[in-house]
Known about the structure:
The structure is a homodimer. Chain A is about 50% helix and about 5% strand. Chain A is an alpha+beta fold and about 240 residues long. The longest helix of chain A is centred in the middle third of the chain and has 29 residues, at about 130-160. Chain A is globular. At the A-B interface, strand 4, helix 3, helix 4 and helix 5 of A face strand 4, helix 3, helix 4 and helix 5 of B.
Amino acid sequence: MAFELFYWPGIQGRGEFVRLALEDAGAPYRDVARAPAAQGGGVAALLQALRDPNAEHPPYAPPFLRDGSQVISQSANILRYLGPKIGLAPSDEAGRGWAHQLQLVVTDLIKEVHDTHHPIAVNWYYDEQKPEALRYTQHFLAQRLPGYLGYFEGVLARNSHGSSHMVGSLISYVDTSMFQLVEGLRYAFPKAMARAEKTVPLLITLHDRVAQRPKLAAYLASSRRLAFNENGIFRHYPELDA
Amino acid sequence: MAFELFYWPGIQGRGEFVRLALEDAGAPYRDVARAPAAQGGGVAALLQALRDPNAEHPPYAPPFLRDGSQVISQSANILRYLGPKIGLAPSDEAGRGWAHQLQLVVTDLIKEVHDTHHPIAVNWYYDEQKPEALRYTQHFLAQRLPGYLGYFEGVLARNSHGSSHMVGSLISYVDTSMFQLVEGLRYAFPKAMARAEKTVPLLITLHDRVAQRPKLAAYLASSRRLAFNENGIFRHYPELDA
């Protein structure tokens, strides 16, 4: 049976890390909120599943994944669950723990990227927190982003199986997540990323190699890949990019 | 061999969620940075392990746990690893995934609590971001905190094994984490929590029951339990609590 992914239909957001893994693996899945309402899809279906009063394992927020009777949420936790099933995780428990740990660092970085435009309140508009966003982003680009990117570069440099992958000698969802990080950061902060990329050559090489994987490339060229936009996590506000 | 926990010695912080699980389980562990330098402890030992150039699985930040040759970081990931070993996790894989998923929601909430006093830059002092902290915290206490607490209350209410535990019918690290959340929130925001607690009776009952567990109670009464203070995650700034 196909996996069912529940996520907001108009943005890449946190759901995209799951979509990329499913697409690269060629795994059958249904992007529920993007399916027609007549076929049980749409945002109404997402909200109904999110608020199901009978769910014993309710998600706190999208994305969440339904696999038969199981419902799993938190993007890093979804990938931890999916990875071994779709061939995008190491075969040993220690390797799986390491992959998940790296994905949790991605989660932390993504939250900080989100906060560049929403430093005060997730429920308010960007326009309601612009001065704070500018102050936050200046610190983020100067201090935090180089720290995260340097960390990931160091993981590639130290991989005893070579620097072609984040974990061991094989592709994993951590690699597809690195691709997405680079893509998103290039979209949101083209000037800052142009500078930062010079310091992380292994990460950029990994990004480029992931982009050429046939199934992933086909996905990126398809209408299933949503464009980045100013409702998602990676937003391009030129005034923030310096 | 005893587990080695690496975390900042002067605060509860994110490390406390791990300490509470180890203490409740009566598991042998060494709190490395709090041990004397003469015994290989202290902050120097923590930093040396954090920056070990030969580590293939480097932590991004404390806390991290050393178990023999394995080094595991990210507090939720440490608990996921430790739980089954110390009898504080369900025996089945689905239950373990659910416990971890809940701990990741705790992680999200803890980050937001941190940001009540550091909304702009983690590297700056609170005094450098006070107006933003006030604005952030007003929204946090009005909108975000009730959402998180209500979610956890709902998880207890829906547990088909009864509302005595967050996961299934047995104690887990999610329960000790709920205890710590309530403790920390009471310390940081006594006025706001006095109001909020009325809405989450199951959670408060769980907190009270966890506090009475013999090993945990002994820990809380010991000098190993650090006091909350204004260097940690839960900070009491009266001007923020309304």
